[in-house]
# Entry
Amino acid sequence: MSHLFPTYTRWEVEPEIAGGSMLIDKNGNSYLDFTSGIGVCNLGHRPKNVEDAVLKQLNQFWHISNLFQSSSQETAAKMLAEASGLDRVFFANSGAEANEAAIKLARKATGKSKIITFNSSFHGRTFATMSATGQDKIKYGFGPMLETFVYVSYNDIEAVKREIGRDIAAVMIEVVQGEGGIHVGKKDFLQGVEQLCKQHNALFIIDEIQTGIGRTGKPFAFQHYDLGPDLITTAKGLGSGFPIGACLGKENLAQYFGAGSHGSTFGGNPLSIAASIATMDTIFKEDFLAEVVDKSEYFFEQLRNQLHHLSMIENIRGIGMMAGIECKFSVTTVLSELRNMGLLALPAGDKVIRLLPPLTISEEHIKNGVNIIKEVLETSAKPLEHVY
Ligand code: PLP
# Structure
């Protein structure tokens, strides 16, 4: 009997060791990892400079609390500020906590109570971030949600116009919806949302928890769209696997997050901060990001060239090293077949295969991984289409 709550449908694989883009399980099977721990290990597994930074910190102290001065938190915050164009940072432990900070701050700074979010969005599993999420399945059975959130269609500016009114404190949005199925935001829509926020004195919050830290070929995905958010949130890739989240905001918001207004025992933990500095030191470099862009072109070229003939595919979409292959049927069986063939991939919704390979993956591994997807889709085409 398991003593864990059965909150996860776990795969049959139990990892023994992982390095770079590869993972080896307890039975000695090796896998190409196109999941990066769900968009976390952007530098692959156990990147040396992150390991060294954490080991150095391990030998100094592990936890001291936020009552002390911390030049390493200051360094990490400066790196985030310089990479994003925002000014202030609150460190949390996860994406949901970073979003909680943004939600609280937006309500306090504006004195308004409602926040617009989008259908198919995902913002986390705490009570407020679950309420913010625009997917019924995430909320099922948990009773009435917070009344703070108003949900509208993604990429539909008229829908935002209809709802943005006097009591809207903020609009919170992903520029690429990750969990919801890799839906890429349209530039004029995203810019339109920003304009509406300005007109109505609402804050523009971008959730970069999955899209940030180089995943799309820029430090943050909003930078593809010429946007100027008031707040952004990030987590996942920030610590290369050490738990950390961050809420970044403009200088004028600092007055609303004064001493005692918000906090976290573990937020900005020295080990996670050391990991995040080493991670950002690698990823927020022009050369590194230029390589991600080149790699992304190769990745999508491989996806389109190798998979274009498969009739069960509705659509291949994405940006950077974030791709969704939408199929005409549920992809659960396909994902399990991929694992049998040595490729780890994720779902996004029911019908989308989500690929989040490490940004450091080689072209050879990209090609091999896509080849496995082709083989599995080709061989499973008949029975699956039949079932469908
Ligand atoms: N926001 C987005 C866009 C996410 O993709 C996720 C996680 O998948 C979250 C928030 C929640 O992050 P966490 O699981 O670290 O709380």
Summary: The first helix runs from residue 36 to 39.
